Amino acid sequence: MIADSHCHLDFPKIYDNLTEVIKRAEYNKIKYLLTICTTLKSFDKIKLIVSKYKNIYGTFGIHPHEAEHHKQIDSNFILKTIKSNKKIVGIGETGLDFYYSHSSKKVQINSFIEHISAASQLNIPLIVHSRSAEKETYEILKSEKKNSNLKVLIHCFTGSKDFAKKIIDLNFYISVSGIITFKKSSELADTVSSIPIGNLLVETDSPYLAPEPYRGKDNEPSYIIKTVEKLSQIKKLPRESIVSATTNNFLKLFNLA
After folding, report:
1. Those residues with Cβ within 8 angstroms of residue 76's Cβ, 6 or more apart along the chain or in another chain
2. Do the beta carbons of residue 94 and residue 63 sit within 8 Å?
């Protein structure tokens, strides 16, 4: 059974056909889905989804692109919002994205730190988005981990080998997406080959980043089998070993075992 550790089931392209999407996922032996929050509005749909489907879990968080429009979201707000819902098992997607300028760096950093604080207080994992911000992401996480048992999942990893090593040294987890199947991702594949299997998860980030041979189409959880197959090639491990390890890592990280 496979765990898709990061998908956006509330997005219209999936939500409007959710029953069929879930059926296809089940047919391809994807048992666990974690649907990720990006805005206050998305959380309303996420609560409905996780209440309807047994093996779908959710998170609460504000994406760095949306931080400018959600300045009121601090750690206390996050704590109050999710404390009573046992199927909200993580905080995020939060982090830093300096590739685009949808939110200022200062606002993103403030939001990131508030999410970290809430994750530490609740002792649940933090799902981190990092793009063109490796140095800042690492420095903040390293600093905030000093006084807490912070649990972190770096999602949709496309970073450098040095960044991966630093993340592993902090005992954090890394999730890989369909990007590893792309023809121009040989450098990423080399980096992923160096990451211990005990620190790896898989994801779709659907409806984005469909793997080969579905690239260009809307992504969905059932397509994660292509990412698993590619990871099996990269790590030189049987497909069953990849499935077992990444699913066990998912269950351990999110305390669902």
Report:
1. none
2. yes
